[in-house]
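Researcher: Re-running this chain for the archive, since the previous output was lost when a drive failed. Same request as before.
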Amino acid sequence: QWRLGTWFVALDVVGLTLLALHLFLRTLHFALRASHFIFPLCYILVAVPWPTTVEGPVIQNLTRANVALSIELLNWGGLPALQHGNVIETSAGMVGIDEACSGIRSFQATLMISLFLGELYRLGVARRVWFCLAGFVMAFFFNLCRTLLLVVVASRQGLGAVAQWHDPAGVTILVACFLGLWALGLWLKTRSAKREVQSVSP
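Model: Regenerated structure tokens:
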């Protein structure tokens, strides 16, 4: 329930700030309008925690998909593994897939990056939607790679080695997502510029 209250407070802050800017700019007769500040002000809403009724099912579904695909890939790679809910059983023991490894944090991070780069490169609405979806796919893919890495490390070096690889792997996939989205954003920006040139030229 406290998360819902946080959303109400955040929306109040955004709404009151926009109203104050509108009155201030209108009083001083500036050329800028309050609508110019909608994106930067609404951008802070990305940092607000999702409601539990939304975040819970998303985490569960992502975790199950992550574990199921990891099991299939591990078995195809010749490493026997079994699924027990959100836990992967290997010859070395049980490797649990917690909330961080489900991908929800990477999803939130890639959403922030996608929205920021989409606004920075002035992409169209359709391209921004596809950009965000591409970020979600990248986040899930790199989290899947992280899970596979941790399970392989556990099976070869023991469960104690998982703790040493857990955080570095998390930072690595976040950097990889950022670089991948950056490259994709530059490519979309280039294509948009080319289309504008083609539409303007006779």
